[in-house]
Amino acid sequence: MRAFLSLLAFLTHAGAQVQRVSIPLGGNISLDAALVLPRGPVRAPAVVALHGCGGPFASRDGSWALALANAGHIVLLPDSFGSRGLGPQCSVKDRRVTPSGLRRKDAIAAAQWLIRRPDVPPGGIDLIGWSNGGGTVLYTATETSDLPAGLFRRFVAFYPGCRTLSRDSGWRPAAPLMILVGESDDWTPAAPCHDLATRFPTEITLLAYPGAYHEFDAPNRPVRLRTGLATPANGTGRAHTGTNERARQDALKSVLAFLEAEA
Predict the structure, then answer these.
(1) Which among 156, 136, 217 has a CA at the least distance from the CA of 182?
(2) pLDDT tens by residue, 180-208
């Protein structure tokens, strides 16, 4: 919850038109979320944005919400962990809130809540996410019978873990998907994402940035080595994170163009 409150504070301080909202999930559980509204005319699509394993990351998630809202998009940022009384999960190996499980359900519930608002343009919701949230995007994008038809129109996954799905012959994206990765990422390596994109060259747009690490799009974050992590593919619990300004600027332009492209 602390991370979510930090996100709200960041957005408020930045002058965003932000509201704290609650999305019923059933079973006496509600999903806390920040709703960011454009100050000018609203344009399609509305966007659901999913945090990483640390929970809402104010400077990164908030900066993206501001950029999207300034471009006219309504943005909803749900907190999957704090809503269930959980703190950061980056060092937790056995998680009960996973990308393929509860987080996928949260993404669908958030999009269904958002699309029912009268101020949301028709035509479906775009879903973006970072790291653990990026993995949630990939699992939500899976073409399955339980994915509500027409709910999502485009997907964007920042540095997701692609390894499992790259080996799943039954996986395919249900709509256009953009994956953004750093070629130097030692937390969620780029190679499996290259494999996934190679399988679906017309459905997946892959942007891979040389010299960029995990969280390359977070502003003003010097590269550092993090330890005690549960999921780096190298098994050491260690991975680098930090800003790559060239990659960040390219991602800002590329993602906005991708989200606003006609379906």
Answers:
(1) 217
(2) 999 999 999 999 999 999 999 999 999 99
We report the CATH number of the domain holding residue 243 as 3.40.50.1820
The 10s digit of each residue's pLDDT in 117-176 is 999 999 999 999 999 999 999 999 998 888 999 999 999 999 999 999 999 999 999 999
207 near 244, Cβ under 8 Å? no
Please say whether the beta carbons of 30 and 10 come within 8 A: no
- What are the Cα distances from residue 140, in Å, to 54, 128, 129, 174? 20, 10, 11, 9
Q: Which residues pair with 52 in a beta bridge?
A: 55
Cα 23 to Cα 56: distance, rounded to the nearest angstrom: 17
Range of the domain at 193: 2-260
Residue 149 CB burial class (10 angstroms; 0-12, 13-18, ≥19): exposed
- How many domains are there within the chain? 1
Q: Is 235 exposed, middle or buried (0-12, 13-18, 19+ CB in 10 A)?
A: exposed
Helix (H) or strand (E) holding 180: strand 177-182
